[in-house]
């Protein structure tokens, strides 16, 4: 069962609500890290169509598992100047891009009501500009020569 089916997701009751039980979300952690469990802080993500979503259950289990194969890391995926993606860090969604100096830059996706925005004073064309969704942000960034990469 997926994360979006365990507990309430976008107003739709999950299995935990329907069955009157505690919902559990499981996240993989690297081998060698101890397993942990506790209250679920939730996790932000991006669905198809660049729609931002948040999944959260009652409890979260962090379980160490061996990865079947190495997934490309951010520096590998975003190796070209102007490439960008969205990445969740501790339940917060960030825009991550490769800057002109070659470094990776992390910009928190802010929310104001239904709209999203980033704070990038060096990009006056997008700095604090309210957009309706992440798809609009991708379009605005792409119009200025940046290229989106799916992780």
Short précis:
This protein has 151 residues and is α+β, with helices and mostly antiparallel strands. It has helices at residues 3-6, 15-19, 74-77, 134-143; strands at residues 24-29, 36-39, 43-47, 51-55, 59-64, 83-89, 92-98, 104-108, 110-112, 115-117, 147-148.
Strand % is: 35-45%
CATH architecture of the largest domain: 2-Layer Sandwich
Going by helix content, strand content and strand pairing, the class is alpha+beta
N- to C-terminal distance:
22 Å
Strand line-up across the major sheet? 8-7-6-11
Low-confidence stretches: none
Shape: globular
Secondary structure: helix percent: 10-25%
CATH fold-type name of the largest domain: SHC Adaptor Protein
- Rg, Cα atoms, Å: 17 Å
**Overall pLDDT confidence:** 87
Q: Care to describe what's here?
A:
The chain is of the alpha+beta class. Helices cover 15% and strands 35% of the residues. The chain folds into two domains: 62 residues, no CATH class; 75 residues, SHC Adaptor Protein (2-Layer Sandwich), CATH 3.30.505.10. It is built from four helices and eleven strands; from the N terminus they run H-H-E-E-E-E-E-H-E-E-E-E-E-H-E. A four-stranded mixed beta sheet has the order 8-7-6-11. The longest helix is centred in the last third of the chain and has 10 residues. A hairpin with a 2-residue loop joins strand 6 and strand 7. The mean pLDDT is 87.
